[in-house]
């Protein structure tokens, strides 16, 4: 039986001891087969949730009022660099077109069911199998990502949900502290059409109303996520929809994905919710951190030794991208380089003036090679 009811303490979460209670049948709208649980049966109106009532989710789903909730605002100045966070590695994400995937409108989002052959095989201490992916977005008048970075909300956000392979199913796994892992990435409007997202967006007109579903050909699911999986933020949080179980190890990538303006409009304008209204602004507002640490796989600021995570904290998170700020040593290196260049130039000019005018070049002049340093990642 899954734990139900009141919020579990941190000690209970670490022990992985489930709290027993009465559970109802899985809620199909969640997309996870998640049980709706409470110490007492929820009354009328609590078995169904909406984004318009998101401030009151905790009444019918007690975990939604917990202290380890998601999404959060990622303050890059307060993140902790953890060199133990290794690049995320995926397996089985490229699917043949012959494999059909179920795409549906569940009244809250567009959800694509994924076969369990897809897995996270690196970057976490455990292996996690994929279950589904879904999107969160805003409206024509505003963005709709769930997580924010330094207070900035992006146009949309994708979540790919996985469960720990040590458990038999996602329903069992989702109630344990190490049960779920979600990969998140921000979506922005760019100049070109994204061919991977088009594999989903081109079918939205077929599932405009709640409950509609369609089979779509398999494609490379990894194309929906950033190609560079080295740079990301990591923290312990929750599902962002009821039942809000606080059992998610979050990975939010630093690199954003781009969709064309037309594609973003398709996402925002095509679907309707279970009340027949336009399905828009399907995001939860950011939640308090409550002293949780947000780790980064790269240095976002100049860190002092005190900001380096302890071995236990880092190993739990692991379960480098260089910063954009200049160190004092960097400044000295630049000054030394400039001084050396000036000296070398003066020496060359001296040699040139004293060379014989009849000296001939034995080889043609080489063309200049301009070295361009790799651009640093934009964390905002």
Q: Can you tell me about this structure?
A:
Strands 4, 5, 6, 7, 8, 9, 12, 13, 14, 15, 16, 17 and 18 form a 13-stranded mixed β-sheet that branches. Strand 1 and strand 2 form a beta hairpin. With 380 residues, the chain is an alpha+beta fold. The protein has helices at 10-15, 57-60, 170-173, 195-201, 261-269, 311-318, 328-353, and strands at 22-26, 35-38, 73-74, 80-81, 89-91, 100-105, 110-113, 119-122, 128-137, 148-149, 152-153, 156-164, 180-189, 213-217, 232-237, 248-253, 257-259, 295-296. The chain is built from 7 helices and 18 strands. It has a domain at 63-318: Carbonic Anhydrase II (Roll). Mean pLDDT is 78; it is low at 1-30, 33-47, 303-329 and 356-380.
